């Protein structure tokens, strides 16, 4: 393919490359059990979480939260998805792979535009702004909701206990929104209580 | 699942229902040929088109374009995807099914919030605001790009000619952005010219 202007050509090349995020599979299964979720549809779902749960994050710029969530997994095109509950992860190696991915992928765009999107990803990763904290919290909340809807999901796959769920998901979700975490806590407690009752 | 406040419970129910858009399949194949695209990942891809191609729509509120694109296919959860190049479509029946879908799905949310999202979908469908026209144009441009990347794609499936592509995709894409349509025209002409040269 050729295109008339160099800037437009680079934008279209980047958008064509994004196609590959539809083939990056995550650990979460779809609720209907038919297959695993991919990172592109996960990103859409999270952007909808931001639109719909905005009332639980007063003062947060929801438009920027949506942008953070749209780009937050793009590095996985090169670096792959790292399961959240996987033990023994080499965090330095993962960060190195994701940084190299960000340099290549955002480098496809015209300079300032690539830098703007890269800055959004850096902001998400740093989780220091209210927008990034809300985005990170939603990224933890969505798999919790999927696991509850599939009666265990990846918690069963990785033998994750109630205490581990509370310890790993609590801080990011509560940091995003105390009332979202209060609701999630009730749902998580009820799920594991029902499990114990069945055992 | 139960949740503490009625409003939060309704928001979570709506987000859980959105899960189903990941299982609505479109006619377009992924570029790697592995399967058909679904409407959730398509919606993410389009939101990225809006972020990246914003320089081609000066004066347009890109944040609202992104919101329009995130919600534009949600009615397909009930009404299904209607192939763009399918002949003999019953447009009144499709509109009826999509309106019923919008009433049910957006009705899951608390009143004013459901009405706000429903209004975004109505705005997209009406294609009268600059934001909706840009969103509609991107929704036409993305399948064109996928078809070019797969050397024909749905154009071959539906025996669509160069003249039909130009007639069907030209007005919405040119209405969104003349320079995007100029670029797309070059790419479409080159694709069909190469086809003729191979024949």
From TrEMBL, chains A, B:
<protein>
    <submittedName>
        <fullName>Hydrolase</fullName>
    </submittedName>
</protein>
<feature type="domain" description="HD">
    <location>
        <begin position="18"/>
        <end position="181"/>
    </location>
</feature>
<dbReference type="InterPro" id="IPR039356">
    <property type="entry name" value="YfbR/HDDC2"/>
</dbReference>
<dbReference type="GO" id="GO:0005737">
    <property type="term" value="C:cytoplasm"/>
</dbReference>
<keyword id="KW-0378">Hydrolase</keyword>
<dbReference type="Pfam" id="PF13023">
    <property type="entry name" value="HD_3"/>
</dbReference>
<dbReference type="InterPro" id="IPR006674">
    <property type="entry name" value="HD_domain"/>
</dbReference>
<dbReference type="GO" id="GO:0046872">
    <property type="term" value="F:metal ion binding"/>
</dbReference>
<dbReference type="GO" id="GO:0002953">
    <property type="term" value="F:5'-deoxynucleotidase activity"/>
</dbReference>
<keyword id="KW-0479">Metal-binding</keyword>
């Amino acid at each position: 393919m050729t295109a008339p202007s160099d800037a437009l050509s680079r934008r279209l090349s980047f958008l064509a490359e994004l196609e590959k995020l539809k083939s990056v599979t995550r650990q979460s299964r779809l609720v209907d059990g038919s297959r695993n979720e991919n990172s592109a549809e996960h990103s859409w779902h999270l952007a909808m979480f931001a639109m719909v749960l905005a009332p639980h994050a007063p003062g947060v710029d929801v438009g920027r939260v949506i942008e953070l969530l749209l780009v937050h997994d793009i590095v996985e095109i090169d670096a792959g998805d790292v399961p959240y509950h996987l033990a023994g992860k080499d965090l330095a190696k993962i960060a190195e792979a994701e940084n190299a991915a960000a340099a290549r992928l955002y480098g496809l765009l015209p300079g300032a535009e690539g830098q703007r999107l890269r800055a959004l990803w850096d902001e998400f990763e740093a989780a220091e702004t209210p927008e990034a904290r809300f985005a990170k919290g939603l990224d933890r909340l969505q798999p919790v909701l999927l696991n509850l809807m599939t009666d265990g999901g990846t918690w069963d796959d990785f033998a994750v206990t109630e205490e581990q769920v509370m310890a790993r998901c609590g801080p990011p979700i509560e940091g995003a929104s105390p009332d979202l975490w209060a609701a999630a806590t009730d749902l998580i407690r009820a799920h594991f209580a029902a499990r114990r009752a069945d055992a």
